[in-house]
Amino acid sequence: MNCSGWVSILFMIASAFIYIVINPTLIHKSTSRHFSQQNAPVYFNYKSQTTKKNLLKSPESFAILNDYIYMGLEDGSVVRISTINLSDINHLDDNDIELVIRTSELNPNKTAIPSLSQCADMANRKDFKQEYLCGRPLGLHFDDIGRLIVADASYGIARIESVDGSGINTHDNNLKNKLQITSLVSTLSGKDIIFANSVVVFNDLLYFTVSSDKFSRPEHMYEVMEAEGRGALYAYNFTSGSTALLVANIPFANGISLSSDHKKIFVAETSSARIMKYDILEGTYTVLSDNMICIPDNIKLHNHVLWVGCSQIRSNFVDRVRRFPFLIKLFCSLPGVFFKWIVELVRSKDGIIVALDEISGDERMVFYDYGGEAFKHVSEVQPLKGYLYVGSVYHNLKRIKINNK
Ligand SMILES: *[C@@H]1O[C@H](CO)[C@@H](O)[C@H](O)[C@H]1NC(C)=O
Ligand SMILES: *[C@@H]1O[C@H](CO)[C@@H](O)[C@H](O)[C@H]1NC(C)=O
Ligand SMILES: *[C@@H]1O[C@H](CO)[C@@H](O)[C@H](O)[C@H]1NC(C)=O
Question: Which of 62, 265, 254 is nearest to 148 (CA)?
Answer without folding.
Answer: 62
